[in-house]
Give the backbone structure.
Amino acid sequence: MNIKILEKLDKEFSSHKSCLRNALEAGQGHIFRWWDEITSREKKHLLEQISSIDFQFVKKLFRDRLRKVTNRTKGRFVPPKVITPPANDFERNVEQNVRKVGEEALRERKIAVLTVAGGHGTRLGSNGPKGTLPIAPISGKSIFQLHAEKIHAIQKRYDTYIPWYIMTSETNNHITQAFFKENQFFRLDPQQISFFTQGMLPAVDLHGNLLMSSKSNIVMSPNGHGGTIIALKGKGILNDMKRCGVKEIFYHQVDNVLIKIADPVFVGYHLKDGAEMSLKVVKKCHPEEKVGVVVCLNGCLQIIEYSELSREDMYAENDDGALKYNAGSIAVHMINIDFLEKVYQKGETLPYHAAIKKVPYINSNGVLINPERDNAVKFESFIFDMLKHVKKGVITEVLRQDEFSPVKNVEGENSPVTAKQDMVNLFGRWLCNAGVSIPTDSQGNVIGLIEINPFFALDAEELKSKIDKTLKFNGFLSL
Ligand code: UTP
């Protein structure tokens, strides 16, 4: 079959012959099984996909899939130094001074925002990109709109301009960009928003064979949020940032609806310490929470994934009974641009982690199978593996209820329902802080609906300065 295909290709698509050979040499000839049945257009698409794949690299990734890529030598790591939320006037004063450093950097236009939105959101099973999900508790604004309005409000507050970079993947890039256009870029300057796509890698079955989702399409997946690092350089984004005078990147994931975009306190701590990469963490809610914990290993920061933390370390306690490894990463970072350049110059790359997942595919009879059990391996790089290059990093602990509510699942924890409630609760606390009485149920959830537009208030202090103190909450408030 292979020789026949080569002969046919010689006539039809001679320029693709070498990539075809690569596929065959890597033992992936089955992807041509339906060659005679598919149209010329489909053939062209399949060949384009094949040209983008480094088959030997995929083979190596599969061979190495069982090798753990993070260094989790038991007992050698210790809890890292964490800046905790201010607990007294002195600490509040320190924070105010740090905030000024961050505010100055924002005014000087040194900060860019980078939102990673290339994931497939498989657990959520949504039709479109996660950022397009209607989420605001009253207005139903999308996650992207919430982020855009926060950026707009910060620009107004600090009389500044914040370039916004959004990483998508080939699968959702078009629809994401169309969404922004349809919504007139949420009243931001279209020139300040740049989209770029991350790389893709094929998903393979449990024997290392490429999977097809149709007779002419190989299953491809985004190469993980660590793909940001490759794409920033490869797509010329870093140079673009430098041209705009940007010195630091505020990095966050699209699905956290409580994100404090370009938080001046976080920016300030990062700058004050001359850090290369900084992280925000929250206290874990329980020892087995599925969140990576930040540790310090041989003087270097590192994130240990929950699956790699031994039970003993998971439950280890300090003298005061608090969890010893309690700094749960929420994937919010500041990254210094010169540091990134240095890492590139050294030719360093991020490792790939293998994830076993359920991936629909067509079987050898061309029938689409929706597997009930895990059937595939996907390869992803993680942004936090950059930490191994970091000599100076700051970790700030923030309150989960104020800053972290990701949308991951259709229902249950970290779902649209909890995200909406978390927003309402946050706004409720801002109102209480301003002296407005807000009823809550036995779980502490606000009874009623509240939504506060970032243009009205970006935080509790701003709300307090603007709110009518005589306001009576009747169960529904949109400001
Ligand atoms: P998750 O790991 O939660 O993945 O990504 P996901 O795609 O959102 O959801 P699942 O796991 O398929 O259900 C966390 C963040 O990283 C981004 C996602 O868009 C999300 O903002 N991400 C993830 C990328 O940008 N690219 C990737 O390859 C993976």
Observations:
- The CA atoms of residues 49 and 218 lie 7 Å apart.
